[in-house]
User: What shape does this take?
Amino acid sequence: MKKIFVIISFVTFCNMFVFAQSGWTALISGTTNTLYSVYFTDANTGYTVGASGTILKTTNGGVNWINQSINTNVFMYSVYFTDANTGHAVGTYMTKNTNIFATTDGGTNWVNQPSGSGQLFSSVNFIDNNIGYTSGTGGTILKTSNGGSNWVTQTSGTTYSLMSVYFTDSNTGYAVGDNGTIIKTTNGGLTWFNLNSGLTNTFYSVYFIDANTGYIVGSMGRILKTTNSGIDWITQTSGTVNDLRSVCFINVNTGYIVGKYGTILKTTNAGISWISQISGTTNNLYSVCFTDANTGYVVASSGIILKTLSGGEQSIKMTNNATDNNFIIYPNPSDEKFMLEFVNPNKKLVTISIFDLTSKLVLEAASTEEKYEFNGKELIGGVYIIRIKTDKGIISVCP
Assistant: This one.
């Protein structure tokens, strides 16, 4: 499949310049510990947990992060909140009684909840304030029916580590893990049965949009999708062999996946195609969540927290003296069609020209709107440069 890249590189123009920016910006976390999970309860309030007992909270959309760390010997791998005050974090420690923690005051205090298990817990998911599940090594699944005061071991039917657990309603849940393991319950975890994936990949994350449609991501760039509640799983093309660690969707069509070496993938067509985004880092990314269609967060190794306000789309900004105009090109790269958006409130005529790297003009269009869709079906795969003519004059390279 051909790939078309549209770029505006760091080129100086007469009285103006343009530069490209990643759609993801690094926030100041205040830690260098690896962060494994992120969860937001509303547009401003979020939590991330990680190595050495790290728990961070923000109440202003990630501008500041407050340290709520617990025992430094505890590694926290997953965090989940059921309301503004009630949340759980799970992980591992060397005793049976310090691997599940709960808060009922928005993280001011975290209280240990004895699990009776010495396993490492990788994932936690709650249906409401009382009913929740956690999964981990050795095929372990625990259930609570009283907000975590008591945890009861369930019979999962597997000894493979279960990396992620997700429930779509009070009865139906899924857990995935090592050696291509996918298991399902339809009676609230009383019994679990195997859904044969036919694969040996490690599955790191499972996420369902509704009762029927769900996604699993895992090692070696593996993506699976079901549209019939897990009866069948169809492999999707990720375009990468990097391990994929977390998946989330903001609607039936638009979803994100993050993984190893700074990998961020986005789909806007329910996974038919996945487009790589620029994360700005090569660190391993472990968790992704979105608070609305455009605002999302990713956490990673070395205490990295990334945020986007543009759905992760790369922005291209042009500065002309005192006037700033924002340009966005997406998807970039593209298989064929791509959209150019720009600020043009007065409906001035804008001429858009696309050149190949030999400076040959290959496409040109004029518009008075603020959005224009290019169809690159006649272009071969490669890198192209865009130039824009506005009422300020022609953007051209200075001699």
